[in-house]
Amino acid sequence: MELNDEIIFKVALITALVGMIGMLAFASYIEPKEITINEITRNNIGETVSVSGVVESVKLSSSGSSCFLELNDGTGKINVIVFESVLVELKDAGNDLNDFKGHNIKVVGSITEYKSSMELILANSNSIKLES
């Protein structure tokens, strides 16, 4: 069998389609990496991670458009930033961030740095869950 452009094109097309179908099928099973707060460094900036801990405080920003949760997992503390769009989603779902205070939660968010301290930006309203 002789390889020509048409055969190579068909093989490449089939391989690409199988790969894309596989990615779509398994995308919902991909979980963010679970880490502790003391493991978070500048090397993790931009990564989406999962962190569990107790909400020690809930503070509204001075503009009222975002909220800050102080999360403590026993290894350290980190601020979780909840922007206005996520606050609206949470309120629409009947959740108040003040209800999380003193409770153990699991959050999924992306790591960022602000004024030399690491922070976690909440991905969406489904990214915060009460743990028992």
Automatic annotation (TrEMBL):
It comes from the Archaea. GO terms for molecular function: nucleic acid binding. Residues 49-121 form the OB domain. It comes from Methanobrevibacter ruminantium (strain ATCC 35063 / DSM 1093 / JCM 13430 / OCM 146 / M1). This is OB fold nucleic acid binding domain-containing protein. It holds the Pfam family tRNA_anti-codon. The keyword Zinc does not apply. Keywords: Membrane, Transmembrane, Transmembrane helix. InterPro entries: NA-bd_OB-fold, NA-bd_OB_tRNA. The chain crosses the membrane at residues 7-30.
